[in-house]
Design goal:
Blueprint: H1 17-26, E1 29-35, E2 41-47, E3 49-51, E4 54-60, H2 64-71, E5 74-80, E6 90-101, H3 104-118, H4 123-133, E7 138-152, H5 153-164
Antiparallel strand pairs: 1-2, 1-5, 3-4, 4-7, 5-6, 6-7
Helix pairs in contact: 3-4
Length: about 160
């Protein structure tokens, strides 16, 4: 084993841009994280659409996260390759800012886009999804990333193999 090898510094195992986009396209769920009024971090699993460099998520205005991000728009989004059909151990975390949108144009664009992502191949299922989710309380969360942290497990595995000789 190489004397200078250790797992303390994983910064060289970052995710390349093409793999970042492949993970975003393959995965349809993320962990959306925000802070409570008391400063506690909280996260839930949510489906998303990635468009124009932003993550777009659907939520009811009755959820406490809506009021939380209106109070403090600093959020995080985390994705992993688990369950996405990718053979590599990949992960991405983004720090960002969140806007709560309720305008008709955004909802009319977003709900069909999310339906196509979650119900591919079935127009009837997509139409039902939009109909069920298009409620007066529907809001769209737009997360604009400000910092990215990526991890590529293949790079770490290759470094481990090389260090072991």
């Amino acid at each position: 084993m190489s004397d200078d090898f250790n797992y303390d510094d994983v910064s060289s195992y970052t995710l390349d841009d093409t793999d970042e986009l492949a993970l975003i396209a393959a995965q349809d769920e993320c962990t959306f994280m925000w802070s409570t009024r008391e400063g506690w971090p909280v996260g839930v699993i949510m489906s998303y659409v990635y468009d124009s460099g932003c993550f777009w998520l659907s939520v009811s205005s009755l959820r406490v996260r809506v009021q939380a991000v209106q109070r403090d728009p600093r959020v995080a989004v985390c994705l992993t390759s688990k369950g996405a059909g990718l053979k590599a151990a990949l992960s991405l975390t983004y720090k960002g800012t969140c806007e709560v949108l309720s305008d008709r144009a955004t909802i009319d664009w977003f709900l069909p886009a999310l339906a196509r992502r979650l119900r591919p191949g079935s127009e009837a299922a997509q139409e039902a999804f939009v109909r069920l989710n298009d409620t007066p309380a529907r809001r769209v969360l737009k997360v604009t990333p400000t910092q990215r942290i990526g991890f590529d497990g293949r790079k770490m595995a290759a470094a481990t193999r090389a260090a072991m000789g």
